[in-house]
Fold this protein.
Amino acid sequence: MAKLINGNKISGDIKNEIKEEVKELERVKGIKPGLGVILVGEDPASKVYVANKQKGCDEVGFLSDTVKLPETATEAEVLKQIEIYNSRKDIHGFLVQLPLPRQIDKTKVLEAISPLKDVDGFHPINIGKLFAQQDGFVPATPAGIIEMMKREKITIKGKNATMVGHSEIVGKPCALLLLNEWATVTVCHIETRDLKMHTINADILISAVGKPYLIKEDMVKDGAVVIDAGINRITVDKANPELLSWRKSDFDTKGATLIGDVDFQKVEQKASVITPVPGGVGLMTIAMLLKNTLKAAKDFAQLK
Ligand code: GUN
């Protein structure tokens, strides 16, 4: 049976460390880190993420500021708000929640964010810094995945690591981080012909796709480290009998449950270490976003 990585505990530790640093930053420099969030439209998942980011800010003692724009907002309106955050002295980092409504060009928006305040790490300058292993902002979810493994004392160097998913938010940056840690990295995606061929030899298997039951036990090497960065909301009408009984209380109370990409109940019998959903990678994302915001505030204060 695999050991469970406790995302709750690790993200809690990180938040406590941040809280201490915030006190010190306020005491020495009189600066309270501030995070801004721009939310455009009414995407329900985005609203939940944004609320969680605000809650995280409150927990560690950051200032948080959210600007909500309607679904019909123009690109110019979003760019104007970005300019405001770029120049505000009390906002050290900010992000534009994705996805954006179709009339707004994501590339233009991300490029308008000051790279010094780009706590999501999506600006091409920060992507380039990650590539070149220079100091910059690293996207929160992949940074959280690596941080989790380090805190669990999992060796990455020399391991075969397979990344399933090639998104700009998780898969691609995670593959680069693993490479920077000297893993031998394979990246799989929607056009990969034989997924199992690439997962079965993985010492570290990470999935960030958003497809329930994608990773089955016969695709996992005995003793592998399995990190599940998928988030799938399954409503009671879509659940199979096993899931209905495993997550009965969720279905009874909420009519839905959250699962990852990994067939958890079977794979946990084969892996040596595994992350649960919920309670795994998801919690690390907020913690690392807060860590990036603290870094932005410290850079601003020229404290290192
Ligand atoms: N939408 C889903 N994940 C993210 C994220 O990490 N940052 C932003 N800005 N939007 C997202």
Notes: The domain at 31-114 is CATH 3.40.50.10860 (Rossmann fold). The two ends are 42 Å apart (CA to CA).
